[in-house]
Amino acid sequence: MNYNVIRCARSVLLVTNLEASRKFYVDALGFIETESDENHIYLRGLEEHNHHSLVLKRADKAAVEVLGYKVSSEADLDSLAIMFEKEGYPIKWVEKGEQHALGRSLRVNDLSGLPLEFFAEMDTVERLLQRYDLYKGSRMQRIDHFNCAVSDVEAAYKFYKENLGFACSEYTDTPEGNIWAAWLHRKQNVHDVAFMNSKGPRLHHIGFWLPDQLSLIHTCDVLAAMGYGEAIERGPGRHGLSNAFFLYLRDPDGHRIELYSGDYLTSDPDFEPIRWDINDPMRQTFWGHEAPDKWFTEASPVLNVHTGKEMEILPAKLEQHKPTFVI
Asked: For 94-131, how does the pLDDT look when each residue is reduced to its tens digit (9 = 90+)?
């Protein structure tokens, strides 16, 4: 393929109350607010040199507008457009200047219905990695991945590998040998995107990288002190799959955020994907404790990039069930 998807790079979340969102993301979690206006807040992590990795956009109803990936060049956008049109997916161009701080972008709903955006150019800003005087909350560093609920994981897995050049780091399968979930990457760690078998398309969560495990613990203290104890949905803990430390939160609109630290390198071409059985108690949580039921059933709706309306939710291809833990 003659295009290079570099990494997951930004998302646009629709939120109903910008001030409530600012208090959660900036004051509690420690995101850097690059800019804002009456309808948007542009956020980034301390090590990010691009203008933003998360846009909070005022709307009447919470949803996900786009999941964005950075590519190497403008020519890559043209090549991607040709591929998607050849595969039968209608595309939408958003010209430079139509979105703040962003160059030309290509939008498309993929085979699962997820709203994707590809771009090569974004304004750059000061990198604040060593501005330790600005570290607060979770000491947020950078965007890491998207996790998406889709109706057909195996179809998504195949499309992203064959058409977008992603590689698989880990996967979960059922006793019948079906892929129930898959973790795929372009950058050289565990994932830029994960797909889980569920009603979809929906966004399960956006993962953000923290500098260390103690930052997760500190975040819990900060959230509790600020009255956000109920925002803590799951964790802190360590995943078996990915080996990362995690903490799952729900923002004021119910969007799920994962704070994430400590996975591993996946750069070698002879790296073999790691298989997990769906009923392995160490898969979701290395220490063996169960996730709450809502972690498997609740997720954010996503929009059609052409109409702006919510995508139709399709049933999961595989039987939806919470893993059975036998210790």
From this structure: 999 999 999 999 999 999 999 999 999 999 999 999 99
Instruction: Tell me, rounded to whole angstroms, the distance of Cα 192 from its chain centroid.
Output: 7
Residue-level pLDDT at 284: 72
Q: Checking DSSP bridges between strand 202-209 and strand 300-301, what pairing results, if any?
A: antiparallel
Q: Splitting the chain (327 residues) into consecutive groups of 10 residues, what average pLDDT does each group show?
A: 96 98 98 98 98 98 98 98 98 98 98 98 98 97 98 98 98 91 96 97 98 96 98 91 92 98 94 89 73 90 98 90 46
Distance CA 16, CA 14 (A): 7
C-alpha span between 1 and 3 (Å, rounded):
6
CA dihedral for 57, 59, 63, 68, sign (positive or negative): negative
- Please give the Cα distance from 97 to 80 (Å, whole number): 21
- Tell me how far apart the alpha carbons of residues 139 and 132 are, in angstroms, rounded to a whole number: 9
Q: Domain 136-301 is classified in which CATH homologous superfamily?
A: 2,3-Dihydroxybiphenyl 1,2-Dioxygenase, domain 1 (3.10.180.10)
Q: Residues of CATH 3.10.180.10 domain(s) within the chain?
A: 5-119, 136-301
CATH class, domain 5-119, is alpha beta
Alpha helix (H) residue ranges in the chain: 18-22, 74-86, 153-164, 213-225, 281-284, 293-297
C-alpha distance across the termini of the chain, in Å: 45
In whole angstroms, how far apart are CA 185 and each of 121, 136, 299, 305? 21, 29, 22, 24
Alpha carbons 74 and 52: distance in angstroms, whole number: 19
Query: Distance (Å, rounded) from C-alpha 239 to C-alpha 288?
Result: 9
pLDDT tens-place string over residues 223-266: 999 999 999 999 999 987 888 899 999 999 999 999 999 899 99
